[in-house]
């Protein structure tokens, strides 16, 4: 049991609602930030319990911005915790929010969970995540729930939207630049981590990958017939 789960299970204060398997995910991707003066943004304040959980886990140097549509959440403001009230599906609100934020080390989208909210929040806030920061979207099972705008392989869900991220981190290798070219996402994202109901995007400045061969070959490398045919075609031209 990690410290986040321990706090959750011992909690007698403000309500916290979490799927049990999330704690391992949080600890795996957030542990490196503990004890540091970081900026954390959480969409979905709800009853305010997770704000206390993050402070306990990361330490007193953390600065937290909680975002919720419910004006009652303003009562959870305290030193080191600011609450912003607005609809995460409203791009104008998201842009105002982004304009007032410093670089964000961790952004957690645990808000309304509709497709529109998740996609718009990503598009407006992902650029605010620090070059070595983390963007985490949770409760992605709503991508499969019709009442949230989801459905299996339904166009426009966050799951379907995020599948393009897989192509974008591989854009260095594209031989069809008109269809897939490197982008800011390619150059700024180190890895994607999909879990049940969670996507974690870890940022890191990236450059085109390189490779080399070191050592003595024992026999000629096998070249598949297709590659031989392609090479002969290239030689002709």
Description:
This protein is of the alpha/beta class. It has a single domain, classed as Vaccinia Virus protein VP39 (Rossmann fold). It is 32% helix and 19% strand. The chain has a 7-stranded mixed β-sheet, sandwiched between helices. Helix 1 crosses helix 3 and helix 4 packs parallel to helix 5. The longest helix has 12 residues. It starts with a helix and ends with a helix.
CATH topology: Rossmann fold
- Rg, Å, rounded: 22 Å
Q: What name goes with the CATH superfamily?
A: Vaccinia Virus protein VP39
Unreliable stretches: none
Number of DSSP-assigned strands: 7
Main β-sheet description = 7 strands, mixed
C-alpha termini separation: 63 Å
The figure for the number of domains is 1
CATH architecture term: 3-Layer(aba) Sandwich
Q: Given this structure, which CATH class is correct?
A: Alpha Beta
Helical region count? 8
> What is the share of helical residues?
25-40%
Kindly report the spatial arrangement of strands forming the biggest sheet.
Answer: 3-2-1-4-5-7-6
Note the overall shape: globular
Helix and strand pattern: HHEHEEHEHEHHEEH
Average pLDDT for all residues: 93
Structural class by helix and strand composition: alpha/beta
Q: Tell me the fraction of residues in β-strands, as a range.
A: 15-25%
């Amino acid at each position: 049991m990690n410290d986040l789960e321990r706090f959750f299970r011992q909690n007698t204060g403000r309500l916290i609602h979490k799927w049990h398997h999330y704690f391992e995910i949080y600890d795996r991707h957030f542990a490196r930030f503990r004890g540091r003066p970081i900026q954390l943004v959480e969409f979905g304040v709800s009853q305010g319990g997770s704000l206390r959980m993050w402070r306990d886990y990361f330490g007193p140097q953390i600065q937290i911005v909680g975002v919720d549509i419910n004006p009652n959440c303003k009562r959870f403001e305290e030193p080191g915790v600011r609450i912003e009230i607005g609809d995460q599906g409203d791009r104008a609100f998201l842009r105002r929010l982004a304009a007032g934020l410093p670089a964000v080390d961790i952004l957690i989208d645990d808000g309304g969970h509709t497709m529109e909210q998740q996609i718009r929040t990503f598009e407006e806030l992902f650029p605010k995540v620090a070059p070595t920061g983390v963007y985490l979207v949770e409760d992605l099972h709503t991508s499969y729930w019709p009442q949230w705008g989801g459905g299996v392989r339904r166009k426009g869900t966050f799951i379907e939207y995020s599948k393009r991220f897989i192509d974008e981190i591989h854009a260095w290798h594209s031989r069809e630049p008109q269809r897939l070219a490197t982008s800011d996402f390619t150059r700024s994202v180190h890895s994607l981590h999909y879990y049940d109901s969670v996507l974690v995007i870890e940022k890191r400045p990236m450059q085109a990958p390189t490779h080399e061969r070191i050592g003595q070959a024992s026999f000629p490398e096998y070249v598949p017939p297709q590659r031989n045919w392609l090479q002969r075609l290239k030689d002709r031209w």
